[in-house]
Structure formats: structure tokens, C-alpha cells
Amino acid sequence: MAGTAAPNAKRMSLIVSKGTLDWAYPPFILATTAAAMGMEVAMFFTFYGLGLLRKKLDLGVSTLGNPAMAMPLMGMHMHMPNLVAALPGADAMATAMMKRLIQKKGVASIEELRQLAIESEVRIIACQMTMDLFEFRREDMIDGPEIGGAATFIEHAAKSEINLYI
Amino acid sequence: MADQVLDVKGLNCPLPILRARKALNALPGGATLQVLATDPGAVRDFEAFCRTTGNQLVASEAQGGVFSFVIRRGG
Known about the structure:
The structure holds two protein chains of two kinds.
Chain A: E1 11-16, H1 21-36, E2 40-45, E3 70-73, E4 76-79, H2 82-85, H3 90-104, H4 110-119, E5 123-127, H5 128-134, E6 146-148, H6 150-157, E7 162-165
Helix pairs in contact in A: 1-4
Chain B: E1 4-8, H1 15-25, E2 32-37, H2 42-53, E3 56-63, E4 66-72
Parallel strand pairs in B: 1-2
Antiparallel strand pairs in B: 2-4, 3-4
């Protein structure tokens, strides 16, 4: 899928700031699709989003403080009150449910979308400051990302037709 | 008959588009790709994809829950 962006291609820039399973989807879906549509794409992984560049992903979702989240269950939709969501095991249960749904509905895994982003030459920038802050080591992360700061991202963002903060 | 057939039945957004992009890249300009999908969102997505990328959507039809798109690769 490599090399589809023309020299005068439109650009898209994304800030990826969240690292849960649910929040990991929008940036990877949009970045890979934009690349497939010929755009030159950059993703800047900062704060909790940086964890999405780890070699081994073990992503989860939290129902706590996520009041709009509803899982399909026996033809209905199940909401979880915060009081229940705070109990031990609630997040593990919600994560297991979502992973089952992802598989059942033919939705790609984050690992797969991440690989497709790399193959389609999406520019992946890991935030240097976050690496220092959370003590991430380069060797714990996938090959491919460049390490950069805010200015590195803004240089690309300033030339982009689409800028997203997720 | 299209030059190549791509079966993405059962796959959800954005995989049909990503797989189609990959398949189109391997075809010469003017060749046709038929995509078979079950994702209803693919109908509008392939229209938008073709409008944006200079490929031509030659046919788009639905039969028995399967959507069929024929795309002619732009030059």
C-alpha cells in the first residue's frame, strides 16, 4: 500500500493523546483511510496515546466516567452506572466484551491498523517529552516512529488541510 | 468481468477501503477491480473514495446482503 501520496497531496495531521482500546480506533482508522485516499498523514503520539506505540499492546476500556458507553447485550444496550463501574473487575469485563464484539463484527485489531498505517507510510511521531516523563524506552516501542517534539508536529500541522486532536 | 476480484465480506470499516487501495495499487491504469463487501457503510465510502482518488466507480449494486463495486483504476 506504500507510496500513494503525490508530491502535491493534501495533508492530515492528528494528535493522539488517549491510549485506551476504544480511543485508539478513531485516529488509526482515519489515518489509514486518509493515506489510502492519497493524503500525506502524520500522527503525533503524546501522553497516554504514546502507549499505543509499545511493541506489545494490552489495551483496555474503562466504563468509569464513560457514561455514554453502552454494550449490546441480548438485543438491548447495557449501560453501567459509575457506582458499579468502580468495582474491581468491571473494566476487565467491559474490555473482554468489547474485544469479543471487535472480533465478531470484523473490526480490525489496533495492531493490524497500526501495521497498515506504517505500511502506508503514515508519518508516526513519538513525543520526546512524554517518553522522558513516563520513562518509555525506545526499545519497548515498535520500529518506525521518529522521535520529536511539538515543533516537529506543528511544522506538518501548519501545512495540513485537516488537523485533528483525539 | 473485472480484471480482479477482492472479497472483503465480513470485514468492517476501514478494512474494505484499505484492502481495495492495496489491490488497486497492484493493477495497471484502466484495469478494473470488483470488490465484494457486506459492510453497508462501504456504499457511500467507495463513492467518496473514488471521487477523491481519481478512480472510477463503474458499478455499485446490492444483492442478498452483498454489495458489489466495480472500480476502474485511474491513469
